[in-house]
Specification:
The chain is α+β, with helices and mostly antiparallel strands and about 1300 residues long. The protein has 40 helices and 38 strands. The chain has a six-stranded mixed beta sheet with strand order 2-1-3-6-7-8, with helices on both faces. It has a four-stranded antiparallel beta sheet with strand order 11-38-37-36, with no helix packed on it. The protein has a four-stranded antiparallel beta sheet with strand order 12-13-14-15, with no helix packed on it. Helix 22 packs antiparallel against helix 23, helix 30 runs antiparallel to helix 31 and helix 33 packs across helix 34. The protein starts with a helix and ends with a strand. The relative contact order is 0.06.
Length: about 1300
C-alpha cells in the first residue's frame, strides 16, 4: 500500500479544470433580462437626432448684378492691369448691355449645376423698386422654403457700416442705397445671402444687428403681423471679405473670384493650383476649361475630380464643425451644402490674397487643413494626363488612387482598435466611396467594422449621412453585399428604431425576408444562421408597434418563413425567430389567426424545452403575444359567417390554453429566472384576458381556505363549477410568488394581489390590500424568497417525460365558459399545482417579511413560507417588534472588523431598493383607467436588442489576447497553475502530515453549523451558520470578509456549500433543505454581493424531516450540479443550459446523506444513504438501470464519500465513512467488498464529521467527544487533536464539520457548541 500511496502522489498533476469554462457568467445573469435603460435612462435610448426633421429646399434664386460696365465706382481705385472677368466673361469684349446679359446668363447656368429646378430671377443693374418687387414676388412663391439672394456689387460703391448696399435709380444717373433691414423685410426667412463685393463684412455686422432687433420686436409683440414668424437667425450669409478688405485685383484672377469659387470650384481650383505649381508650365487656362467629361460622371476626369473635391470638402467640414452645424449646412439643403463646400475652397484661395471670407453661422478656419494636400495631389495627377487626353480622344484616363488610399487609411485607423482617441476623419470619404461599384464592397466591410465598435460609432456614421446610401443599396441584387448590408442594418436599427417607414417605402424590408426564405443565393453568406438571426431582428424592429409593417410582413408570408427555422441548429436564430413571430402578431389579430390556423403555435411550444434559456424565454414571449382578445363580431354579417368566426374563436381559445399549459409545465421547473419571469408575464396576460374566470377560481380557494367572511361570488345558477385549468394557473402563480429569485417573486405577487384586490375592496376577505412599494422594503434587503416545495416530483424518465398529455389535442373551449374539469389539471398535478393543499408551516417570529395580500394564507400550498398576518399594521403576529430586524436576529457582532451584507446602513439599503424598484416598475403597465394593470410588460425584446448594440466581430475582452480582462484571467491561470504544481498533493511528505499546530481560530456570532468549504486558490473559507447566513473568512488573518443572508424561509437551513469557477472568478452555490439552490457572485464584496441565479432544484420540501438535507455536488468540467436528499431521485442540472438534464431513479427508500462524482468526466457518481448503503451510478446508463454497484458494509448513516486518486491518476478508489466510526476503502473495479476497514473512533463513540482529501490519501474524523483523528489510507493514525489545555488555549468543541484544503497543508474543523472554526497545519 505504501507503493500505491507513493504512486498516487507521483501521479498527481496540475488539475485540468484550471483552464475550464466558467458557468453562470452569461449576460442573462446580470439583470434577469431587464434592459440597461430600465436602470439608467441614458443607456439604450433611440438616437434619432441624426435625421433632418425639417429638410429645406432652395426654390427661388435672385441674381442681383450691379456692374455698371464701363464706369468704375467712385470709392474704388483699380490697378492697371486689373482683374476684369465676370463669370468667365470679359465685359469689355462685348457691348455693355450684351456683356451684362451674358454675364447674368452664365451666372444662372453656374448655379443651375447645383440646383437645376429652382426659379431664377436675374436683376441686371436694378433699381430699388425693381429689387423690392422681385424680392416680394420670390417670397410669395417660395412660401416657407429658402431663397438665395446673390449680390454682385463690383460696379457700385462699397457697402456702408450702417448696412446699406447700393443699386441704381431708374435712369442710372445715381447710386441709391438699399438697406439690409429692407431686404430682410422683403425676403423674410429662411434665406441664404451671397455678397460678392468689397467691405462685405459690413453687411454681416448689420444683418446681425437687425436680426436681433427683429427677434426682440416679435418677442414683445408676437401677434402684431398675425403670420407665422421665422427668426432671421435661420438665414445664412456668405461674404467675400471682412469689413475692411478690398477684393483682389490680380489680373490673373477673375474679378468675381468669390463667385467663381462658389459656383465653378473645379475650374478655379485647378487654375489657382497651376499658377502655383512650377512643374505644370505647359498647362494653360484654356486647357483647364476643356477637361474632358461631365461633373456628374465619375468615370471621367472632370467627374472624378468633382467627386474627390466633394469628398475632401465634406470631410474637412465634418472634422472641423460641430455635428449640429454640419448637419444644418451640409445635409439640410443641396444648394446650401454645395455653396458651403465651395466656400471652403474660397477661404483657401482668397486668404492667399489677404482676403478673409466670412459666413454666418461662422466657420472655423480650414484653409490649412491637411486634406487640401490630398486635393493638390489628385489635381496634379489629373493635370499631368491632360495634354495627352486633349491630344487623343482615345487616350485612357488613369483614375486616381485617392479613394483606395483613404480606405486604407480608414482600415489602419480601425486596426488601432480601442486605443484610438478620436473619430476617423475618413468617414465622410467612405460615404462617398459607396457611390462607386469598384470600391463599394470594401467600403461596406470597413464601415461594418466601424459600426461594430459601439453605439457611438453608429451615431457618427448616421450623423455623416450614411443612411440614405444603405437604404438605397437594399434595391441592389448583388449577392456579395447581402451579409455586410444585413450587419450594417442590424447595427443601425439596434440604435435607432425609427426607420420603419423608410423600410416600408420601396419594400426595402423584403430584402431581409428573401434572405430568410431563399436557400439558393445564400452560399456567399458566411455563417448564414447568424445573418438570418440579424434579419429576424431587423424585421422585429420593423414590426415593433408599427401596424403597416406587420401587415406588410404577413402579406409577404413572413410567418411561414419563420416556421422553417424553428428547428435550426443555431440558438441565436431560434431565439430571434420566436421574437420576430411575437412582434409580427403582437396586437394584430389577423396574424394571430394565421398562426393558429397553420399550427405554428404547436411548433412554438416545442421550443419551451430548448437547451438555451434565451430561446425558452423568447418562446414564452411569443406565447404571450398570442394571448390577445378576439376581434369583435360584426352582427351585420350573414349567420354562416358569424358562426364560422365564433367557431374559429373557440379553436383559438383552445390553442391559447394549450400554449399556456405547456408554458406552466416547462416554466415552473426551469432553473433560469429569466424564463420563470417570462412565465409570470404570460400568466398575467392570460389572467387579464380572463379576469372573471380567475376571480371565480380565487373565490373558490379563498372560501375553502376559510379566508372569507362570506362567499365572494354569488353564482347565478346556484351551483359552483371548478375550472381545473384556471385552478392550475392560480396555483402556479402562488408558487411563483414564493420564487427564490426576488424579481420573479415580486412580479408574481403583483398578479396575485391584483386578483384578490376586488375581494378586499368589497370587505369580503380577512386580509389587507397589498402595497407593492412597501413590500419592496423587505424584499430588497432579503433578495431571496423561499417557499415549501410543491407536492410530488416531475417525471423520472427524462426532463419532461415521454408521453404527450391529452390536453395537447386542441378542443374547442371558449374563454367565457369555465370548465368543471378536464385533463389539464391531472397533467399539471405532477408538478404539484393540481392538489388542494400542502402541509402548513407556522411562521417564526425571528424572520421579518413585509405584508402582501398573499401572505395571510399561510396554510395554503404556495404561500406557507410567507409571513403571517400582520397584527396592528407594524409587527407580525406573534413576533416581538423589538426583535424583528436582522441585527437582533443574528446578535450583536462582537469585535467585528467590517459590516456584513444584510446589516448595511440605510444609505446602501436605499440604493439596493431603488434598483429593484426600477426593475419591477419597468414591467408594470397602466390600464385604461391610468392605474397599474394586472398585465405585466415583457422586456424580452428590449433586452435582446442590446445584444446587437454590443460588438459582434471581435472577441469579448475576456477572450481577446492583450485586453485587461484577458491578462487578468491569464494571470489567474498562471497563479493557480503554479499554486497547484507546488501543492500538498505533489509532496511526498503528504502521507505523514499530523496537522498538530493550530494556526488560526475563527470566531462566529452563530454556530458555523456542519458546512465549511475551502477555496482552492484564494485564501477564502466558507461557512454556513445555524440560521441562514453565509460567512466568508480570510483563512490567513482570521478576518471576516463578508456575511450575507441566504434568505431561507422560516424553519429551513443551509445544507450545502460549494465554490464554482474556482479557476477564474469564483461563485458560491448554496443548497437549502426547502429545495432551493442559490448562486451568488461578488461574494467577497460587501457592497456588490448579489444573487446571480436561483431556482427550485427539487420539488420536495426537505425541511419537514429532521435529518434530511439537500446534498449538492458540483462537477466543474461538465458544468453539472447534482442534487439529492430524501428524494425519489438524484437530479442532474446542467448549469449552462439551466435545465434538469437527467433524473436518476433512487433505488433506496432511505435519504441520501453523501454524494460524490468522479473528477474526470463526471459520469460516475456515488450516493451514500442514511442506512449505510453506498450506490455507484453510471449516468450513461438509463435511469432505471443506472445502479452498477452497491456497497453494504457500513452499519449506519454515511457521513461522507469520495472517489479518491488510486495511484494512477484515476479516481477508482472509493473512500467512505459512517457515523458508527468505520472508514472503508473500495476499489470500484474489483467488487463489492471493501479492501480496507479503518476503525476511526473507539466503540460507543459517534463519528460526527468526516473529511476525505481528493488527491492525498488523508482522512480526518471528528467526534462528539471533542477530538479529531487523522489517518492515512493505510489506517495509520497520524495524530489525534484534542482541546488545548492552558490559560490561553482554544478549546475544541463538538466537531460538526471538517474540511481539507485541496492543495495546502490545512485542516478546518467547525464546532457546534462554541461557534468557532479551528485551522490546523503541520507547519507552525
Amino acid at each position: 500500500m505504501d507503493e500505491q500511496v507513493a504512486a498516487a502522489v507521483a501521479a498527481a498533476a496540475v488539475p485540468a479544470e484550471l483552464g475550464m469554462y466558467s458557468f453562470v457568467v452569461d449576460r442573462r445573469h446580470d439583470s434577469c433580462g431587464v434592459p440597461k435603460h430600465a436602470q439608467d435612462a441614458d443607456v439604450g435610448a433611440d438616437s434619432g437626432d441624426w435625421r433632418m426633421r425639417e429638410r429645406l429646399k432652395t426654390v427661388s434664386v435672385a441674381l442681383v448684378l450691379c456692374l455698371n460696365i464701363g464706369i468704375d465706382p467712385p470709392d474704388v481705385l483699380k490697378t492697371i492691369p486689373c482683374a476684369k472677368t465676370e463669370c468667365w466673361v470679359d465685359p469689355l469684349s462685348l457691348p455693355p448691355q450684351k456683356a451684362l446679359e451674358t454675364i447674368g446668363k452664365n451666372l444662372q447656368q453656374q448655379y443651375e449645376v447645383w440646383q437645376p429646378r429652382a426659379r431664377y430671377k436675374s436683376l441686371l443693374d436694378p433699381s430699388v423698386e425693381e429689387t423690392k418687387k422681385a424680392c416680394l414676388s420670390l417670397r410669395k412663391n417660395a412660401k416657407d422654403e429658402r431663397i438665395l439672394f446673390h449680390y454682385n456689387g463690383h460696379g457700385v460703391p462699397k457697402p456702408t457700416k450702417g448696412g446699406e448696399i447700393w443699386v441704381f435709380n431708374r435712369s442710372y444717373t445715381q447710386y441709391l442705397p438699399c438697406s439690409i433691414y429692407d431686404l430682410q423685410t422683403w425676403l423674410g426667412s429662411p434665406c441664404i445671402y451671397v455678397f460678392d463685393c468689397s467691405n462685405a463684412g459690413n453687411i454681416l455686422n448689420a444683418f446681425d444687428r437687425f436680426s436681433i432687433q427683429r427677434d426682440e420686436e416679435h418677442a414683445n409683440n408676437p401677434d402684431r403681423d398675425n403670420i407665422s414668424y421665422i427668426s432671421m437667425k435661420e438665414c445664412i450669409l456668405l461674404a467675400a471679405c471682412n469689413a475692411t478688405d478690398t477684393l483682389p485685383m490680380n489680373p490673373d484672377l477673375p474679378a468675381d473670384l468669390f463667385t467663381c469659387c462658389l459656383t465653378t470650384p473645379i475650374e478655379i481650383a485647378l487654375r489657382w493650383f497651376v499658377s502655383h505649381s512650377p512643374l505644370l508650365d505647359g498647362i494653360t487656362a484654356d486647357m483647364i476649361m476643356k477637361i474632358p467629361g461631365q461633373l456628374n460622371d465619375r468615370r471621367t476626369a472632370l467627374g472624378e475630380l468633382n467627386w474627390i473635391f466633394t469628398a475632401i470638402t465634406d470631410t474637412i467640414a465634418w472634422n472641423m464643425l460641430p455635428h449640429d452645424v454640419f448637419k444644418k449646412l451640409f445635409r439640410q439643403d443641396l444648394m446650401v451644402a454645395a455653396l458651403f463646400r465651395n466656400f471652403l475652397l474660397a477661404e483657401r484661395i482668397m486668404r492667399y490674397y489677404h482676403c478673409s471670407p466670412l459666413s454666418h453661422p461662422p466657420l472655423p478656419s480650414t484653409h490649412q487643413h491637411p486634406l487640401w494636400s490630398s486635393w493638390d495631389l489628385a489635381a496634379e495627377l489629373c493635370l499631368h494626363q491632360l495634354p495627352e487626353l486633349l491630344k487623343s480622344p482615345a487616350a485612357e484616363y488613369q483614375h486616381s488612387a485617392f479613394f483606395s488610399d483613404q480606405l486604407t487609411a480608414f482600415e489602419v485607423w480601425l486596426s488601432k482598435g480601442p486605443i484610438a482617441q478620436s473619430h476617423p476623419e475618413q468617414l465622410p470619404i467612405v460615404l462617398q466611396v459607396l457611390l462607386s461599384q469598384v470600391h463599394r464592397l470594401r467600403a461596406l466591410m470597413l464601415l461594418s467594422r466601424f459600426l461594430d465598435l459601439g453605439p457611438w460609432s453608429v451615431k457618427l456614421a448616421l450623423s455623416v449621412g450614411i443612411f440614405p446610401y444603405v437604404l438605397k443599396l437594399l434595391q441592389s441584387p448583388a449577392a456579395e453585399l447581402k451579409p455586410v448590408l444585413v450587419f450594417i442594418w442590424a447595427k443601425i436599427l439596434a440604435l435607432d428604431s425609427s426607420c420603419q417607414n423608410d423600410l416600408l417605402k420601396d419594400n426595402g424590408f423584403t430584402y431581409f425576408i428573401n434572405i430568410l426564405t431563399n436557400n439558393n443565393n445564400t452560399s456567399m453568406i458566411p455563417n448564414i444562421a447568424e445573418h438570418r438571426a440579424m434579419c429576424c431582428f431587423i424585421l422585429c424592429v420593423f414590426c415593433h408597434h408599427f401596424r403597416f409593417g406587420q401587415e406588410a410582413c404577413v402579406k409577404n408570408e413572413l410567418l411561414h418563413t419563420l416556421a422553417i427555422h424553428f428547428e435550426d441548429e443555431d440558438s441565436l436564430l431560434r431565439q430571434w425567430v420566436c421574437i420576430s413571430l411575437a412582434k409580427t402578431v403582437e396586437g394584430f389579430p389577423a396574424a394571430k389567426d394565421i398562426c393558429f390556423k397553420d399550427g405554428l403555435h404547436k411548433q412554438l411550444v416545442l421550443l419551451l424545452g430548448d437547451d438555451s434559456a434565451e430561446v425558452r424565454s423568447a418562446a414564452l414571449f411569443a406565447v404571450g403575444a398570442l394571448i390577445q382578445p378576439e376581434q369583435a363580431v360584426n352582427t351585420q354579417q350573414p349567420p354562416a359567417v358569424i358562426a364560422q368566426i365564433q367557431q374559429r374563436a373557440k379553436l383559438n381559445a383552445s390553442a391559447v390554453e394549450l400554449c399556456v399549459c405547456r408554458a406552466i409545465i416547462h416554466g415552473l421547473i426551469d432553473a433560469s429566472p429569466l424564463v420563470r419571469k417570462e412565465l409570470v408575464i404570460v400568466l398575467s396576460k392570460f389572467v387579464a384576458l380572463q379576469e372573471d374566470r380567475m376571480a371565480r377560481t380565487a373565490a373558490t380557494v379563498l372560501r375553502n381556505e376559510k379566508f372569507t367572511k362570506e362567499d365572494p361570488i354569488v353564482y347565478e345558477d346556484g351551483a359552483e363549477e371548478v375550472d381545473g385549468f384556471m385552478m392550475s394557473m392560480y396555483k402556479a402563480l402562488l408558487g411563483l410568488s414564493a420564487d427564490p429569485y426576488p424579481l420573479v417573486a415580486l412580479l408574481a405577487r403583483h398578479v396575485v394581489d391584483m386578483i384578490h384586490a376586488p375581494f378586499v375592496a368589497a370587505g369580503k376577505v380577512n386580509a389587507p390590500v397589498s402595497v407593492l412599494n412597501k413590500r419592496l422594503s423587505s424584499v430588497a434587503a432579503a433578495p431571496g424568497v423561499g417557499s415549501p416545495g410543491l407536492n410530488g416530483v416531475g417525471p423520472s424518465s427524462g426532463m419532461y417525460g415521454q408521453q404527450q398529455p391529452s390536453y395537447l389535442q386542441p378542443t374547442p373551449s371558449p374563454y367565457s365558459k369555465p370548465r368543471k374539469s378536464n385533463s389539464v389539471q391531472s397533467d399539471l398535478s405532477s408538478l404539484g399545482i393540481g392538489s388542494a393543499s400542502i402541509r402548513s408551516r407556522d411562521a417564526s417570529p425571528s424572520v421579518k417579511r413585509h405584508s402582501s395580500f398573499v401572505n395571510p394564507f399561510k396554510s395554503f400550498q404556495g404561500l406557507a413560507s410567507l409571513v403571517s398576518f400582520p397584527a396592528g399594521g407594524s409587527a407580525l403576529a406573534g413576533q416581538d417588534p423589538k426583535n424583528s430586524g436582522q441585527g437582533e436576529r443574528y446578535g450583536t457582532p462582537t469585535n467585528r472588523n467590517s459590516k456584513m451584507v444584510g446589516m448595511e446602513d440605510e444609505d446602501s439599503k436605499r440604493g439596493r431598493k431603488t434598483d429593484l424598484l426600477k426593475s419591477v416598475r419597468y414591467h408594470m403597465q397602466l390600464g385604461p383607467d391610468g392605474k397599474e394593470s394586472i398585465c405585466l410588460k415583457s422586456t424580452v425584446y428590449e433586452w435582446n436588442v442590446e445584444y446587437f448594440r454590443e460588438p459582434q466581430m471581435k472577441l469579448p475582452d475576456i477572450e481577446a489576447p492583450g485586453s485587461t480582462q484577458y491578462n487578468e484571467k491569464l494571470w489567474r491561470f498562471e497563479q493557480t497553475k503554479k499554486f497547484a504544481s507546488s501543492s500538498l498533493a505533489r509532496s511526498m511528505e503528504s502521507t505523514k502530515l499530523k496537522f498538530d499546530h493550530q494556526v488560526n481560530f475563527l470566531r462566529s456570532d452563530n454556530n458555523p453549523g456542519k458546512h465549511i468549504y475551502f477555496h482552492s486558490f484564494e485564501p477564502h473559507l466558507l461557512g454556513a451558520d445555524d440560521a441562514d447566513g453565509v460567512i466568508v473568512y480570510n483563512r490567513e488573518d482570521g478576518s471576516r470578509i463578508n456575511w450575507f443572508s441566504n434568505s431561507n424561509p422560516v424553519g429551513s437551513r443551509i445544507t450545502s456549500l460549494r465554490f464554482i469557477n474556482e479557476n477564474d472568478i469564483a461563485l458560491i452555490v448554496t443548497g437549502s433543505d426547502e429545495g432551493m439552490v442559490r448562486v451568488y457572485k461578488n461574494y467577497a464584496s460587501q457592497e456588490n454581493c448579489e444573487l446571480a441565479t436561483s431556482w427550485r432544484a427539487v420539488n420536495d420540501d426537505l425541511s419537514q424531516h429532521s435529518r434530511s438535507e439537500l446534498i449538492v455536488e458540483w462537477h466543474q468540467k461538465s458544468g453539472s450540479l447534482l442534487v439529492a436528499g430524501d428524494l425519489r431521485l438524484i437530479r442532474v442540472w446542467d448549469m449552462e443550459k439551466e435545465l434538469c438534464v437527467q433524473d436518476i431513479a433512487n433505488k433506496n427508500q432511505q435519504a441520501i446523506t453523501a454524494l460524490a462524482s468522479d473528477k474526470e468526466d463526471g459520469r460516475l457518481l456515488v450516493a451514500g444513504y442514511a442506512d449505510g448503503l453506498l450506490n455507484l451510478y453510471d449516468r450513461r446508463v438509463p435511469s432505471n438501470e443506472s445502479v452498477v454497484m452497491s456497497f453494504r458494509e457500513h452499519p449506519s448513516r454515511v457521513l461522507n464519500c469520495k472517489l479518491q486518486n488510486d495511484g494512477t491518476g484515476s479516481y477508482h478508489t472509493l473512500v467512505s465513512g459512517s457515523s458508527a466510526g468505520d472508514v472503508r476503502l473500495w476499489d470500484i473495479r474489483s467488487g463489492q467488498k471493501a479492501q480496507r476497514n479503518i476503525s476511526a473512533v473507539p466503540a460507543g463513540v459517534e463519528m460526527t464529521a468526516l473529511a476525505i482529501h481528493d488527491d492525498t490519501p488523508l482522512i480526518a474524523c471528528g467526534t462528539n467527544t471533542e477530538y479529531i483523528r487523522i489517518f492515512n489510507v493505510n489506517g495509520m493514525n497520524l495524530n489525534t487533536i484534542r482541546f488545548n489545555d492552558g490559560l490561553l488555549g482554544s478549546r475544541i468543541g463538538h466537531v460538526g464539520c471538517l474540511a481539507f484544503h485541496p492543495y495546502k497543508d490545512l485542516l478546518a474543523a467547525g464546532t457546534t457548541n462554541n461557534a468557532s472554526i479551528c485551522l490546523f497545519s503541520s507547519q507552525p
